[in-house]
Amino acid sequence: xxxxxxxxxxxxxxxxxxxxxxxxxxxxxxxxxxxxxxxxxxxxxxxxxxxxxxxxxxxxxxxxxxxxxxxxxxxxxxxxxxxxxxxxxxxxxxxxxxxxxxxxxxxxxxxxxxxxxxxxxxxxxxxxxxxxxxxxxxxxxxxxxxxxxxxxxxxxxxxxxxxxxxxxxxxxxxxxxxxxxxxxxxxxxxxxxxxxxxxxxxxxxxxxxxxxxxxxxxxxxxxxxxxxxxxxxxxxxxxxxxxxxxxxxxxxxxxxxxxxxxxxxxxxxxxxxxxxxxxxxxxxxxxxxxxxxxxxxxxxxxxxxxxxxxxxxxxxxxxxxxxxxxxxxxxxxxxxxxxxxxxxxxxxxxxxxxxxxxxxxxxxxxxx
Length: 368
What we know:
globular, 8-stranded parallel beta sheet, 368 residues
């Protein structure tokens, strides 16, 4: 039996379908924030535009971010994700470090070594992760006390803007802009800060490159050993139209075989092309995996004319997720891009009282 099997979240997943929150970026856009709002006084003189750096709002517009978290909890979310999707030194460098390609150079391991050693980026990444975790922790604990239903905080560990699996240079297929150890270092720093902020679980999500995910999972295991504190690990991949995890081109079964050794409390699919196209790949994963199954798709395909930027409204998403639940496929359900608190409320209502996918008995001892 692993620590994940003894965790209170495991008990919830055995008893009912847990609801995970929706899209932070989509919901932020409804507040009409401008460049000056994200900069505040602290980042007033930043050389690059920061408005797309949604994680930074946890520092500069904490009131708005906490209001969004509160709305997702009000909507029925059991699992609250930290606003840290891109809070690594590598991801933050896109907003704060000059691109060497603009000066005749290139992004390569030497460049990214300076990134992960950059004290400003290290301190910023730590602050975003720890601050967001503490914000979520406070709200989750308050809602738990007020409602008598425990709420959980998942530390969001998102993908990077670099790939370990593919070369960006068509003439040099062996070239990689970054090394495995550099990616691992960036993720380890993020995991430490999230744990310091008090998360209940670490969620490696929107995986499009399984080798990047491997680096994140190795980093997490090393941090567990280093700190002596272990929390459940949640894993979620993004799939393409063919069912592959996009850049690394693995099938869902191959992806599960690549990550099952960490004994995640849950494994699943998120983001992608919407719920309908996700269904067959989720069904395959539910058949193969011995962990809980999570599913939080995009609200359909992007549509700039739609109110949220995506096609599907709350009732559409509720209908799709109920279809997954009726088929016995899910233990955790929610929404990714395009899903507002109103979407999550509709999903929570549609799934209320429906039985979760049956979990393998942890005492059976058949985990590989």
